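User: Teach me something about this protein's shape.
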Amino acid sequence: MYPSPTPTNPTRKKFSFFRLVQNAFPVFANDDPNDVDPSPQQKDYLFRYQMHQPSPHLLGEYSFFIGGVVGSKQNSPAVYRALKKNGVLSETGEIRTERITRDFANQVRTVSVHAQRKLVGLLFWWEEEVVRLRLVGEEEKEVEEVLEELTRRGDGNNAVGREVKMLLEGVRRRKALLPSERVEDKLPDYEG
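Assistant: First, the predicted structure itself:
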C-alpha cells in the first residue's frame, strides 16, 4: 500500500486518519493559499514570548501555539518534536529551513494542511527575525565597547560620551521593538 523505506526514499509515508479528515473537508481547515504568513498580532505574541526565553533565538515547544500555528497548547509539543525529528529544528532548536522538503506534509502530519502552510511561513519569518536580532545585537555590542573605551579614558560623561549613551539606548529600543511597531523598507506595489 505505502512504499517501504529505501535508500532513495528514507521516509515511510504512514496513513493518518486525522490528515484524511482535515484534507477531505477543507472548509473546516479554513484553508486560504494566500494566508500563509503569521498576522502582525501573532508575530508580536511570538516575539514577546521568545524575548522572555533563556535563548530568544531558539524556538521552543510552545512557540507554535503562541505563534498561532496550532490551536491548543497540547498540540504544540507534537509539532516541535516532528520538526526536530526531521531536522527542520536542530538539536539546539535553531531553524534550518533548507530541511523543509516536499515530504513536509507527511513529516508534520499532526496539523492540517493550512496549519502546515502557516508553520512554514512562521519558520521563514522567525529565521529572518533571528538574523535581525543577531545584527542588532552585534551593533549593540560595538556601541557598548565604544562606551567602555570612553569611560576607561574618562570621557564617558562629556558630550561624546552622552551621545554614545543615547546611541546605545536607541539600539536597545530598536532591538525591543515589536514587529508591528517597526517601519521597514518595502518595495512599492506595481500594477501591471
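Now, about its shape. DSSP finds eight helices and no strands in the chain. Helices lie at 17-24, 26-29, 40-51, 63-66, 76-85, 104-107, 113-153, 159-176. If you'd like, I can walk through any region in more detail.
User: That's plenty for now, thanks!
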